[in-house]
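Lecture notes, unit on protein representations.

Consider one protein chain, 240 amino acids long.
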Amino acid sequence: DPNEDTEWNEILRDFGILPPKEEPKDEIEEMVLRLQEEAMVKPYEKMTLAQLKEAEDEFDEEDMRAIEIYREKRLQEWKALKKKQKFGELREISGNQYVNEVTNAEKDVSVIIHLYRSSIPMCLLVNQHLSLLARKFPETKFVKAIVNSCIQHYHDNCLPTIFVYKNGQIEGKFIGITECGGINLKLEELEWKLAEVGAIQTDLEENPKKGIVDVMVSSIRNTSLYDDTNSSSSDNDDTK
C-alpha cells in the first residue's frame, strides 16, 4: 500500500518514486468540501430570469437546453403573477380620470371606487380599510376620489359612497354611513360587503356581522314577546 507508513515507502517518496502520502481528511473538512462542490452545481431553480441571463456563458450545451425549458416555465409564472397582481394599492384619482380609470377600465377587472371627503371621519375609516384590502386583493382595482372633483354639490349624507364597476357597469353600490356598514365598520365587514357584490374573492366563511345581527334580532324578538305577554295579562286583568 503506497499510503502505508513504512520506512521503505518513506525512502521511495524521497526519491519521487511514490507520490506524497495522502493525509486523511477530517470529517468536517470533507463535509465542507462536499458542500462547496454542491454549491458549484448550477442551481437553475434558484435563479431569477436576470441571473440566468448573466450566467449563460458558464453553461454548456446540455445546461442550456435545461435552462431554456426552465426559463420558459419561469417566464410564464412571472406573466401569470404580473397579470394577477397588477394593482395592490388604493390610488387617488381625479374627476377627469373617472371614465378612463373606472368606467373604461380593463375588461373583466373589478373596480372599487370610493367617493369621499376628508372632513368626514367615516370616509377616512373606509380609506384605511380599502388600503389594506387593496394589498390583500391585488387583482381588483381600488381607487378613491374627492367627491367634489367628480360630482358637484354631492350631499354629505350620501358619504361615504362606494361603487363597484365591472366592464363599465355598476355591480354594487353603498351610499351613506348605514349602507357602508356604520361608524364602527370593521375591516372584515367591508371585505364581506365587497365580496357579496363580486368585487373580490374572500376567504371569509360567513358574514362577520352575522353574530351581532342575530343577537339584535333575538333581543327584539324577546322584547316583542315580553310586550305581548304584558299586553295579554293587562287584557285579562281588565276582563276581570
